[in-house]
Each structure stands twice: as C-alpha cells, then as structure tokens.
C-alpha cells in the first residue's frame, strides 16, 4: 500500500502505568512525545507536532484559538490556559483525544456524513483531530501532510 495514500488499520500498544522513560537527555518535547507515542507511535506523534506547531509550544494558530505543540483549539476543547502553558498537558490531551477516537468512544461527535466512523482506524483518528470529521476532504489533506512529515522526519535535521 502506498504510504501516503490509502487507509490502513494499525494496532496500537496498550497504555502502561509509566509510559515516559527516565533518560536524562530527553527534552520536554521528546518526553511528552514518548508518552503520547503509546497511542500512535513516536514518529507519528513527532510528525503531528511538526505539522501542527513545528514543535513550538509557543505556537498560537487559528486566529488565536489554538495553542501549543498539538494546537488544542478552543471552543472545541477545554483548558486553553493549560493547553497554552503546559507541554505535558498539551501532549497528554492530544493523546487522550486520539485514543478516544481510536477506541471508538467519539462516535457521538462525528456527524453522520461521508465514511462511517469506526474504531481502530488510526489515520481516521489523526484526521478527525484536525477537522472534527471522519475522512472528510480536510481530514484527508491533513493526513497526507502528516504522512509526508512522517517520512521526511524534519525533526531529525540540524537546527530543527
């Protein structure tokens, strides 16, 4: 299957009690990415953070309504103060929402248009984070951007 096109189902690892490693060299962004990675894999989390904020916690998008690494957007999500000022909260919140979509707990939030919502569709979950819809055109464009970043791995370049 083409890595940028198509849809594939991926299994994710179960959550554990202590997901963050205790390496002394990990930065805050690396540690939180590792924590959220239990939801969808370290590289995918890093790719989403690169697309959303270029890994800048200070990023503020959507005309001042989206905050932090994963651009948690008000009024659709809670806790804008924490989302803007706490890296771990920002990453954990993103991971929790993604996990809820993946586990099939967000069907109530997806309007019944287009492709039917279903559990265990990781890319659908990533796209729904962006658009609030299940595999709609906006979600599909976002998924392509994340996949492109996933394979480019810009975060590994000097000066990133």
Write a structural description.
- With 160 residues, this protein is mainly alpha-helical.
- The chain has a domain at 28-106 and 145-154.
- Helices cover 46% and strands 4% of the residues.
- The protein contains 6 helices and 3 strands.
- Strands 1-2-3 form a 3-stranded antiparallel sheet.
- A hairpin with a 4-residue loop joins strand 2 (66-67) and strand 3.
- Helix 1 crosses helix 2 (42-53).
- The radius of gyration is 15 Å and the shape is globular.
Taking strands numbered 1, 2, ... along the chain, how are they ordered across the largest sheet?
1-2-3
Characterize the overall form: globular
Q: Return Rg in Å.
A: 15 Å
Beta content comes to under 5%
Instruction: Give the biggest beta sheet.
Output: 3 strands, antiparallel
How many strand units?
3
Unreliable segments of 5+ consecutive residues: 1-26
List the helices and strands and how they pair.
Layout: H1 28-40, H2 42-53, E1 60-61, E2 66-67, E3 72-73, H3 80-85, H4 87-103, H5 122-131, H6 137-152
Antiparallel strand pairs: 1-2, 2-3
Helix pairs in contact: 1-2, 1-4, 2-6, 4-5, 5-6
Keyword list:
160 residues; mainly alpha; three-stranded antiparallel β-sheet; 6 helices; 4% strand; globular
Short description:
With 160 residues, the protein is mainly alpha-helical.
């Amino acid at each position: 299957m083409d890595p940028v096109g198509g849809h594939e189902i991926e299994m994710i690892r179960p959550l554990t009690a202590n997901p963050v490693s205790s390496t002394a060299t990990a930065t805050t962004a690396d540690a939180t990415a590792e924590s959220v990675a239990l939801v969808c894999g370290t590289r995918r989390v890093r790719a989403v953070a690169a697309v959303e904020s270029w890994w800048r916690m200070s990023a503020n998008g959507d005309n001042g309504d989206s905050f932090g690494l994963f651009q948690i957007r008000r009024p659709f999500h809670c806790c804008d103060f924490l989302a803007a000022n706490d890296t771990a909260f920002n990453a954990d919140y993103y991971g929790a929402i993604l996990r809820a979509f993946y586990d099939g707990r967000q069907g109530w939030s997806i309007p019944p248009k287009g492709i039917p919502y279903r559990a265990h569709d990781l890319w659908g979950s990533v796209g729904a984070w962006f658009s609030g819809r299940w595999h709609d055109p906006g979600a599909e464009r976002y998924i392509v951007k994340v996949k492109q970043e996933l394979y480019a791995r810009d975060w590994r370049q000097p000066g990133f």
